[in-house]
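**Protein of interest**
===
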Amino acid sequence: MIYKLKINSLEIPGAFFYDKDFGFYFFSDYQVEITLKEVSFDIVDDLITIKDKNINEYTVYKIDRFNHNAYAFALKDGIEMPKVEYLNFDKLEINSKFELFTGGDVLEFLASISKLPNGNYVVGCVEDYITAIGELNNKYKNQEHFFRGHYYYKYQLVPSLFRKPKFFNNESDIYMDFKTQFYNELSNKKYIEILTTMQHYRMPTRLLDTTSNPLVALFMACDKPQGFHNKYYGIGEVIFMSCEKKNVKYSDSNTVTLLSSLAVLETKYKQELYEKIMEYKKTGDKSIYKESNAYKRFVAEVQNELAYFDESFFDPLLLLNHLHVKVGMINERIIAQSGNFILFGLCNYQTGEYEPVKTVSKERIFVVHRPYISSQLDMLNISTGSMYPDKDHMSQEIIKSYDK
């Protein structure tokens, strides 16, 4: 795993690192001063010689580490990765015995680079995070911005309903069971209001939480879920999403009603409706879906909430997509978290396939040094107590304060 980088008479030990989300690098922890800006490598066995500097395959980052220099040589996008042995996070377990770097060292190098050559960011403090958000705000001006923070950077943008077949195959039953249990409270509520309440109580729904506050998303990327275990170094993630304002819907929108009413349809009807719409998508023949029992069942549900539903304005393809939804401030948690949702449409209930999230942008900010970031956020009054203002979480926060 260890190679030697030859620069004139120097031979500097280092190791290659690769992760598809972070890029390809040669890391070297050494005390000399290197003045190179961009290089190309000639690799023979474990010896790497710098070739013509004008080829510009690697960008060189100098990192101040323990009052001496460390270097990261980052391969530019579009350049073929050399055939070498490399480290990745799966080979850098916590307390690993690798003699040159730990996973913590690698994360420190990446956080020092901050903006990676592939366009992703790595941040290890609130200040760098705010800088990244500022750059992205300028990049996507005049757009509506949403943020999603999660504790592990390999999480997918998938609502809880679509994570397990036992959930999406029984959605209508789960919905009705919940409504029945809280009938006095929910009997006069709209579909989206019931789904939002279910989401609040951690029920599986077709909603995916987002926020309009980037610091809330950063907190979520640092907030360890109960029961989460990982033997490797933890990396959180904030996803920056932007969308044209005309495509953002409010909770009382007719389009939101159409998608949220899908929760009440039995699975067999949702599957049939999905198949008929996919067939219509290929042929353009509206009769394919309009004459189906599934569509008639769907219209009946929609008319429970939209008695004036006009089918002539209905585009069935919207049932395959998702919507960014601004919801009403219906509970204290949504207020505290500046909460919004992505509302998902139909999926293929036989395969579990669904339309992936599509937005104008979907930029990624990886979050490291999370205990330190959490302490910074705590000083800004962004903590478990302020994000989850219910009695259970508030009591836990009070007790935790005495451990500090």
